[in-house]
Predict the structure of Molybdopterin-binding oxidoreductase.
Amino acid sequence: MPDTSSLPSPLPPSDEAVEREAARRSRRAFIVGGVAALAGLGGRRWLVTRPETDRLAWPLRRVLDANGRLAETLFSPTRLAPEFPAGRARMPRVNGKVGLKTPLDPAAWRLRVEPYAPPLTQPLELTLADIQALPRVEITTELKCIEGWSVVVRWAGARFADFVARYAPAAQTLPYVRLATPDGAYYVGLDLASALHPQTLLCYEMNGQPLTGAHGAPLRLVTPVKYGIKYIKRIGSIAFLAERPADYWAQRGYDWHAGH
Ligand SMILES: Nc1nc2c(c(=O)[nH]1)N[C@H]1C(S)=C(S)[C@@H](COP(=O)(O)O)O[C@H]1N2
Ligand SMILES: [Mo]
């Protein structure tokens, strides 16, 4: 189990707040459902022929977003994904090569932290050694792909929370994080609570070996409370933002939070 004692622990929402939010959401979903029912037998047809928002008919996108916001309300930094004995770890297939098409020179690679607040007007450029200087954490968890397969993997890296505390402490006032590959082709958005979750890691090793190029060398994200779509490989830049950032797979029909 990771040691969470030194981490900031935002208070979980009160039961009352969660219930209020759930009631508000279900009223909304009821209204959307009611609209579909009113449309009668043609309802399904009507639904799937609506103009799309991020590749989903807008009423469906609206329900998905409402569910996602409910997930955000219920999200708890103390709810941990199950861990497994290290011996259970296997090598997953290489899945998803968006943003990995060009060759990468590991020696020239830098992690770019975008300026997020004055007096930081220049991006911070970190090396892999800077990340490896943070406390090393190892966890064995299940990588779950949204396509329906999963593999237990042993990861090693630094907690995202430790990275923020050391290299971007003032960024903790901003509610969102965006991570992108160096070419910008693949990008992932996280709310700050998910980024600071004790199992969210910036990983440089997989099953006891340095990451291979196809698995995201030199640095990838691991966030075991979410699906594999959020485990961005070959991170090139990290930005802290006031607005919810776009997310590669959320723009292609999946849930923005992608928790499970
Ligand atoms: N840069 C980048 N990262 C990515 C993807 C991708 O296409 N490009 N695919 C994601 C998906 S859908 C999954 S399931 C995992 C798979 O990780 P693996 O290839 O190490 O098994 O990587 C994620 N990270
Ligand atoms: Mo995936």
